[in-house]
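Workshop exercise sheet. Pairs work together: one partner reads the sequence aloud, the other fills in the structure field after running the prediction. Swap roles for the next sheet.
Pair: D.N. / O.F.
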Amino acid sequence: MTSRPTALITGASRGIGAAVATALAPTHDLLLGGRDVEALKAFAGQFPSATPWPVELSDTDAVAEATSAIDRLDVLVHSAGVATLGLLAETPVDVWRSTLEINVVAVAELTRLLLPALRAASGQVVLINSGAGLYANPNWGAYAASKFALRAYADALRAEEPALRVTSVYPGRTATDMQRAIRESEGSDFRPDDYLTPESVAQAVTFALLAPADAHVVDLTVRPRPH
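Structure field:
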């Protein structure tokens, strides 16, 4: 790593996380978080300033070990997440637990462990939320509950850590592998042209990160434009 600012991005091997990493690569040293070691290595190879950071976010011991050597961090982007759709009456407890574990608990623990490093840099935290974090629709109960909780977490973090800038980004449907799986579970066609591109969401993230020092971008909602 160099004297440039450092950004850690979870879920960085694909989708929005990969797009954010690509957008930040010219200006930041990157720690690319994810579970697929080979995918992270291949992606990191595209950027001279990127290092794979493979860790299972639900493994608290692994996360503690992986963060122990980070003493300064300018940017933390939480992009990893899971979504399982279904009626509340048919959603089993393991779906609730796994959804909340990855979408909320892992975010809270990773941020907690990195707070000293973020404070040292007067850093920024970006949480990739969802339109489901603003309103809940049928079949989206568990996912929406996790994203509502993520919004509450961001609000509390912002209030408790005034030296940090904390931004929640609420994308609409985005053309990612997760969206493809969601559309399949809904029995609908996946039409990428109807959705935001990951790059458009990444541009919103960089807008928040590159805001002047006197500005704090708190919430950003991004929706696809109708054709």
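Discussion prompt: The chain has seven helices and seven strands. What would you look at next?
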